[in-house]
Model the fold of this input.
Amino acid sequence: MNFSDSQIVGSIMTDHNFETTDNIAEADLIFVNTCSIRDHAEKRVRARLQEFKKYKKTKPGLIIGILGCMAERLKSQLIEEEKMVDLIVGPDAYRDLPRLLTIAESGQKAINVILSADETYADINPVRLDSSGVSAFISIMRGCENFCSYCVVPFTRGKERSRDPETIVNEAKDLFNNGYREVTLLGQNVNSYLSESGTGFSRLIASVAQIDPGLRVRFATSHPKDLSDDLLRTMADYHNICRSIHLPVQSGSDRILKLMNRKYDRQWYMGRIEAIKKTLPDCTISTDIIAGFSSETDQDHLDTIELMRWVGYDYAFMFKYSERPGTTAEKKYKDDIPESVKSERLKQIIDLQQELSYKSNLADVGKSFEVLIERYSKKSGKELAGRNSQNKVIVFPESNYKPGEYVNVQVLSCTPATLRGSVLHP
Ligand code: 5AD
Ligand code: SF4
Done:
């Protein structure tokens, strides 16, 4: 989401005669788009700011701006703590950047952290910074009102609002006409997408898929409570809606899920997994897991481990619980699991996921997949890398193809992280 937001900021700044540079020493302006989701993310931003100090010394007019969730969460406090910061701009205030910049240029500190009920940046055509030219993000909604008890997002990103479907479809069409072959529709909870004209997510994704069978469509992320059968059927109807669903479970324990205010229980979640497997048998499933939430017992942890095995996740993002100021969990539940226990539980979760990912990859050896080539492989410049519909990376040696093309690849071997194969020539 931040990556996508940075492209919106890129567009606003380009319209005001700025350009991007790869050489930080050359920059007149440095914006850091920040994340507050865990304490670790914020610490990394602060470390990054220390690095920028030296540029400020060599270039006195240099302006440093903090954008995104940390700006929204800490507001003017951030300027007091980090003296070199000139601008603080929350996620809904990017249109105000040019005006704020004039203030900063006059030597004053400039802040806008006003959240909006309707800003979607629908009319802004993102500048595709750092893009492969093959795959792009399209932000379809902003904000979140689910208030999971551990999560800072509803406070930093404000009310949920959906972007007008026509602007989304037009953005996808433009991307396709410019050579892109994959779009990922982005939102904190895409399944609750609902436009003012009454278009829901299933209809939206079908309209994007109809643009061209050669345009792949992905989406992230889904809340289990809202993953509808209607969406699964729509996915089954379109070959180009990719067979991969990210369905964050967070915990396998009913007691913890309740404390987390996730609004579903283990049984409901398992029902959703069964529905996916029935409607889309070749679909991969990935998840997010938090280890060591307030009061989590060994048994709660084992419930998570057991659920992971039952689902057989293909991939997972796994985190230690990090208490966030202002959240319900911070106010009501003690962060009482010792760091060493959190680490041990996280390690067990990661080890298990490694095993599950490997098993999932081994099951693909011998199979063939349509791969959308994204890039030359990082390690050897001679190999190509792309992904199959299931969102797995496949690397293969072949010099006759290039990024943006589809090829059929047979998988010959794998590691827990990557599949390797060779192109099947027609
Ligand atoms: N501590 C740890 N992980 C968190 N996440 C969100 N808030 C926290 C927190 N306070 C994780 C959740 C979410 C993902 C984006 O980040 O798993 O799905
Ligand atoms: Fe945070 Fe829950 Fe919203 Fe996801 S659904 S952004 S975890 S509050």
Notes: The chain has three domains: 2-112, 135-362, 368-423. The pocket of iron/sulfur cluster (ligand 2) is lined by residues 144, 146-148, 151, 153-154, 188-189, 223 (CB under 6 Å). The longest strand covers residues 368-376.
